[in-house]
Every structure is written in structure tokens, then in C-alpha cells.
Specification:
Helix content: 55-70%
Structural class: mainly alpha
Oligomer: single chain
Strand order of the largest sheet: 1-2
Number of helices: 14
Distance between the termini: 80 Å
């Protein structure tokens, strides 16, 4: 049972370590979400709000319909998936930077036209800091009150060009804003630094943690079939618990933005994309556990059907003979009494 209890922690730990240890896996997991309507809508909403606010007071402000059409043309265009992947790659680098260096050391970054530049050069006139919540006040270092965000500046620039192409003369005069989608508060990442560091170090040892006690329990058990049966059902139960934990984490544990509102739909989409690996893994282990328990039950039933019936008990045969003899004596005595009459 100890090995069964360790299995969900080992699977979840390996998943977290794999996502942290390299940006390639992270980007490969989240890049397909560029086609998710929830992601496109969330990006379009943030960029549209930034542009609409900036256009107020200009000589010939663009209509809301023109802004919306321009933003939709960008987020549904062929260039958006590549830009979305680079936005997430830059965000992953910032997460790793916080986990590795801690507050006051790591230099936040902003991506512009596919390049990552220091955060201290990111602010613009009237602009939002974008990369971190308080980065403009904290210089070029992280602070516990900051956040790791998806900096949508490249998308904002693409929409500005789209507006200019559509004939909006004021588009080049839009300020250099940095709309963003908040992913993780730095404070939460700082609290997980030690755990994440050990998970990355023990990444390839984690799968062995449940295997060794499970194998030892089966080998050393007096009834190995019973041990296999219990291990199968135990693994299935532990994977059901992991599935419930992932569902609870998605509903209750995603980071709350600094404004206190619910997480962006894009954050839910990213979580679902990242959680695909553990969800597939737990289904495989769940099925393997049930198959193991089922095979043990089939083998036991087949063996029981082929076993010969038990031999008659000698003591029981002797008692039966005595009873039959007594019945014969009783019958003869009754016949003698009848003849004497």
C-alpha cells in the first residue's frame, strides 16, 4: 500500500520537474493552445482594452468595430501561433529565473518582435509594465509582490500595424503599451523554490519511488497473488485520487490575479495543456492496475475449476457404515418381532 500511496506523488513530481527543467517541453505543450478560442478571446480582450483606452482623445479615433476586426485578424492570423509560442517561452524563462535566483536577483524580461530584452527598457509612455506587476518600481529585479505574466506587446504591435493598414491614421501615435495576462504571482513561486529544486534534481529517480516498494511487497508476500490483486486495486484507487486532485487544483488553486478577479481563460487553457501528460499517465496506470487485478481473479478462477474434488473423509465413511449397519439391525429386529406375534 505504501507504493500505491507514493505513485500519484511520483507521477505529479515527475510532471512538474519535466515542465520546469526545460522550456522545450513547456512550449511544446502550450503552443497548440494558440488555436483555442478561449485563448484567442482572452488575448483579444486585453489588447482591445489597451487600444480602446489609448484611442480616446485622439483626433480621429478608430471605431470599436475597426479595433475589434483588427484584433481578431491578428489572433486568427497565421503569425499568431509562432508569436504565442515565443510569449510562453519568455514566460517560462522568467519562471525558471525566479525559481533559480529568487527575489532581488533575476532580471525580468520583455519580448519585443520575437526578442527578449531587459525589463528596465520595457516601459513606455503611459504604458503598463507588462512583464511584472511592480517591475517599474523595482528596477530590473524581481520583488515578492510582482507577477510572472504573458507580455502581449508583440500582439499589440501587430494590431497597430493592422490598424494602420486599415487606414487608421492615429495608429502610429498609439503609446508603447504592454498589455499582459497574469500567470503566477512571484510570491507563490518563491514559496515553491526548494520543492521545485529537489524535484528537478530527483526527476529520474521519482518513477522508482513507487516501483521498489510495490515490487518488494509482492515478492515478500506470503500470498503473491493476493498481493498482486491488492496492488492493482491500490494503484487504480491512487490514480482516481490524483485525477480528483488535478480537478481540484484547476478549480481552486490557480493563481488569482492581483486585481482579485478570476484567472484568465487563457490560464485555464494553459493548465489543461500542461496537465495532459499526467492525465494520460494516470489513465494508463489506472488501466494497468485494474487489468492486473482482473488477471489475478481469472487465474484464480481457472485454477479452482481444474482442481479435483476433495477425497472422502475416512472417518466420515466409517461413521456412515456404522449408521447403515445400525439401520439393517433395526430392520431385522422389527421383522423378528413381527414373526413372534
Amino acid at each position: 500500500m505504501f507504493g500505491c500511496a507514493l505513485t500519484p506523488f511520483a507521477l505529479a513530481g515527475f510532471w512538474v520537474a519535466d515542465e520546469i527543467s526545460g522550456s522545450g517541453r513547456y512550449v511544446a505543450d502550450v503552443a497548440p493552445t494558440a488555436a483555442d478560442p478561449a485563448v484567442r478571446d482572452a488575448v483579444a480582450e486585453r489588447v482591445t482594452a489597451a487600444i480602446s483606452e489609448s484611442l480616446h482623445g485622439m483626433d480621429r479615433p478608430a471605431t470599436a468595430d475597426l479595433v475589434r476586426r483588427s484584433v481578431n485578424a491578428v489572433v486568427t492570423g497565421g503569425d499568431f501561433p509562432a508569436v504565442w509560442a515565443e510569449l510562453n517561452r519568455a514566460a517560462h524563462r522568467r519562471v525558471v529565473s525566479v525559481l533559480r535566483d529568487g527575489p532581488g536577483r533575476a532580471a525580468p524580461e520583455r519580448m519585443t518582435s520575437g526578442r527578449v530584452v531587459p525589463r528596465q527598457a520595457a516601459s513606455g509612455p503611459g504604458g503598463n509594465t507588462g512583464g511584472t506587476g511592480n517591475a517599474g518600481n523595482a528596477g530590473n529585479t524581481w520583488d515578492a509582490g510582482d507577477s510572472v505574466d504573458l507580455d502581449l506587446t508583440p500582439v499589440y504591435g501587430m494590431v497597430r500595424r493592422e490598424l494602420a493598414t486599415a487606414g487608421q491614421a492615429d495608429a502610429p501615435r498609439l503609446p508603447d503599451l504592454h498589455p499582459r495576462i497574469e500567470l503566477f504571482p512571484v510570491r507563490a513561486l518563491l514559496g515553491a523554490r526548494t520543492a521545485c529544486d529537489w524535484l528537478v534534481r530527483l526527476k529520474w529517480a521519482l518513477p522508482l519511488l513507487p516501483v521498489l516498494p510495490l515490487a518488494a511487497g509482492v515478492v515478500l508476500a506470503g500470498d503473491r497473488e493476493e498481493a498482486l490483486n491488492g496492488a492493482g486495486f491500490g494503484l487504480a484507487a491512487s490514480m482516481a485520487a490524483l485525477a480528483a486532485g488535478l480537478a481540484a487544483a484547476r478549480s481552486l488553486c490557480l493563481p488569482v490575479p492581483g486585481d482579485g478577479g478570476p484567472p484568465s481563460p487563457a490560464v485555464y487553457a494553459i493548465f489543461d495543456a500542461l496537465a495532459l501528460f499526467p492525465r494520460i499517465g494516470l489513465r494508463v496506470v489506472f488501466a494497468a492496475g485494474l487489468i492486473t487485478a482482473g488477471v489475478v481473479a481469472i487465474v484464480r478462477g481457472h485454477r479452482s475449476s481444474r482442481e479435483p474434488p476433495p477425497a472422502p473423509d475416512p472417518g466420515g465413511s466409517e461413521a456412515s457404515a456404522l449408521v447403515q449397519g445400525g439401520m439393517r439391525c433395526s430392520s431385522q429386529g422389527s421383522r423378528w418381532r413381527h414373526e413372534r406375534r
